[in-house]
């Protein structure tokens, strides 16, 4: 089978090597398309592929229509909002993700960004420490749980809210279970977002919710830009000069956010999962899932059943 690795944002070389080793070892042919500049390039590369490994690459209707032989797409990572999963299902294409494989990398970046933020972006002025601060984690999945683990090392007080995870499961991890999303925002100094981008969550982090943060609150987003109501957050940042917004995903209205210098920071490119370890874990998991699919029809990680 022909497996296309299509990544605008390439994997670390060691991950590509590992993926090739797995797939070629199982008798598959690997084609690499990195840093492509247009969808046209992807359409041409995918035309004879039986399987695809992608990151946040957009797998649209056009891509799925161009891929006449495609049977499986594996998103090497957690979020699959960049894939038209419903259309893939219509076309009989299995879509999978590799949950948990890159979550530690994202969780570590939360703290890289937080230290930078509470130390005033290293401008020389006295900042604050994370120890003793209250951290609220919105969504207690693989990333959220890693964030909780690291936060405890910093000596933070950790709470979480996840509408799909019962309070006793959260408490079992030694984390306080907030009563609701509003409660999480009201009772924490910092709120870290780990919700996926879905029809329900898009623009759900709005003016009213973020305004519940106490004085000097920080909102940190290493999830998706789509979950933010950007006009609402811009309005709030203008009104509340005590708030900070830190993100690993540049907002559409980045230029407007830039006006809040000293209270806003975005990484130039999404860096959460950009570690050799995360690339290797997620990439090799993706390759193994493709092997298992072709060998045994295994669809354990299918997200479009
Ligand atoms: C994910 O959903 O796995 C993370 O957001 C990482 O995405 P990336 O592979 O595009 O860096």
Structural summary, described in words:
One of its GO terms (molecular function) is NAD binding. The protein has 305 residues and is an alpha/beta fold. The chain has twelve helices and twelve strands. The strands form two sheets. The chain has a seven-stranded parallel β-sheet. The longest helix has 21 residues, at 276-296. The radius of gyration is 20 Å and the shape is elongated. The model has no long low-confidence stretch (mean pLDDT 98). The protein binds 3-phosphoglyceric acid. 3-phosphoglyceric acid binds next to loops.
Concise account of the structure shown:
By secondary structure, the chain is an alpha/beta fold. The protein is built from twelve helices and twelve strands.
Note the main attributes of this structure.
305 residues; Rossmann fold; 2 domains; 7-stranded parallel sheet; 12 helices; 36% helix; elongated; binds 3-phosphoglyceric acid
What is the name of the CATH superfamily of the largest domain? NAD(P)-binding Rossmann-like Domain
In DSSP terms (H or I, runs of 4 or more residues), the helix count works out at 12
Q: Report the strand count.
A: 12
* Sheet of most strands: 7 strands, parallel
Domains, number: 2
CATH class of the largest domain: Alpha Beta
Overall pLDDT: 98
In helices, the fraction of residues equals 25-40%
Instruction: Using the alpha-carbon principal axes, give the shape.
Output: elongated
Structural class: alpha/beta
- Uncertain spans: none
> What hetero molecules are in the model?
3-phosphoglyceric acid
- CATH topology annotation of the largest domain: Rossmann fold
| Strand coverage percent | 15-25%
């Amino acid at each position: 089978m022909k497996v296309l690795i299509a990544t605008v944002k390439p994997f670390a070389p060691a991950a590509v090597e590992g993926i090739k080793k797995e797939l070629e070892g199982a008798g598959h042919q690997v084609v690499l398309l990195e840093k492509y500049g247009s969808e046209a390039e992807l359409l041409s590369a995918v035309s004879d592929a039986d399987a695809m490994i992608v990151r946040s690459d957009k797998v649209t209707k056009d891509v799925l229509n161009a891929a006449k032989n495609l049977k499986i797409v594996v998103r090497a990572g957690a979020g699959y909002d960049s894939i038209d999963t419903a259309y893939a299902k219509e076309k009989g294409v299995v879509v999978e993700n590799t949950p948990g494989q890159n979550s530690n990398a994202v969780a570590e970046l939360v703290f890289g960004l937080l230290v930078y933020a509470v130390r005033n972006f290293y401008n020389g002025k006295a900042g604050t420490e994370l120890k003793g601060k209250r951290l609220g984690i919105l969504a207690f999945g693989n990333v959220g749980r890693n964030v909780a683990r690291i936060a405890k090392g910093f000596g933070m007080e950790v709470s979480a809210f996840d509408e799909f995870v019962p309070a006793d499961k959260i408490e079992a991890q030694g984390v306080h279970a907030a009563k609701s999303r509003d409660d999480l925002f009201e009772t924490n100094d910092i709120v870290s977002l780990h919700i996926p981008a879905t029809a329900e969550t898009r623009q759900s982090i709005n003016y009213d919710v973020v305004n519940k943060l106490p004085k000097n609150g920080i909102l940190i987003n290493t999830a998706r830009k789509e979950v933010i109501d950007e006009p609402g957050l811009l309005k709030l940042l203008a009104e509340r000069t005590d708030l900070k917004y830190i993100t690993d995903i540049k907002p559409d209205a980045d230029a407007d956010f830039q006006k809040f210098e000293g209270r806003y920071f975005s990484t130039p490119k999404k860096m959460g999962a950009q570690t050799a370890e995360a690339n290797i874990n997620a990439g090799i998991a993706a390759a193994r899932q493709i092997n298992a699919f072709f060998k045994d029809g295994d669809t354990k990680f299918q997200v479009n059943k």
